[in-house]
Input
Amino acid sequence: MPDAARRAAPGVPDAEALLAALPLPVVVLDAANRFRSVNPAAELFLGVSAAQAPALRLSDLVPADNPIFELLRQVRQVDATVCDHDLTLESPRLSRAAVTVQGVALADPPGAVLLTFQDASAARALDRQLAFRSAARSVSGMAAMLAHEVKNPLSGIRGAAQLLEASVGEADRELAVLIRDEADRIRALVDRMEVFGARPVERAPVNIHRVLERVRRLAQSGFAADIRFVEVYDPSLPAVWGNRDQLVQVVLNLVKNAAEAIGTMAEPRDGGGEIVLRTAFQHGVRLAVPGSETRMDLPLVVAVRDNGPGIAEDMRGHLFDPFVTSKPSGSGLGLALVAKIVAEHGGLIEVDGRPGRCEFRLHLPIHPGEAQA
Output
């Protein structure tokens, strides 16, 4: 076909311009799985530049036993579109999970395949966020029930125990003290549960770096005195639209969990325990505001990462469920409270847990005035 016939009509972008504009990572491989082209989204996704790509094969980025090579074989064999879901692309140069890969055969050159990649981790995070909110609502209802149905009779039990303590003999006084102490313990538990009650968030502009600095100082003066902290901050971040005290509570819970995870290691890693506090500005994350039809941009990322043992496989789907914990003396309420507070801020929380590494990422809204600036 003559070049003139292949050109796009006036005003219509050509194929290369269309691929470059796509937000979806797209690559073209030849019959030997060498990169013929990569669009800008694929450069970011694969961590290679368009200039580097022609010198690379797919096997330079992904191990030869990865299922993506079977997908390529099928595409070439049946000359049709083949799609595979939930692939993991893992190597020293690349780390992507929950990826959907779609391949289609190209006629020119023979054996060429066009691949598209779609990261499904964001969709999974949104699904988990809905589950977290559901868990938070169930805990809120339980807290209201406990406060109403338990605290009043508990006060009566405690008062009766005090009266008995003053009027019985020495042998029975010990039992009266036990009743009073247990009543106090149950009341303290109910008080802890009351923080899950549904309350409007009193918002103001919050400097997230001051929140992180406060948490770091609290941790290093107490439970994390022997752990090294690394701060990787974006100093140009705008203010978070939220409640300062609640955000301190969220980050403090995450840092405390990280320190406890590091403390469970049988042998310290080279260089000892480490907690990384990171902030960044990231476009493209939006979420519905609870109880509203509006949607909120969540460009502020706050991450807490540790080099502990990671998250056990059987715990990953239940981390934010109330009363679920892997700690012998844990209550299972810390992360449930984190999920509740983040949800009430209209935010999103993600978890990336693997052996030797665990990271919690918070996506938070910015102050509306700065969003319009």
Remarks:
- DSSP finds eleven helices and 14 strands in the chain.
- The longest strand covers residues 94-105.
- The first helix runs from residue 3 to 6.
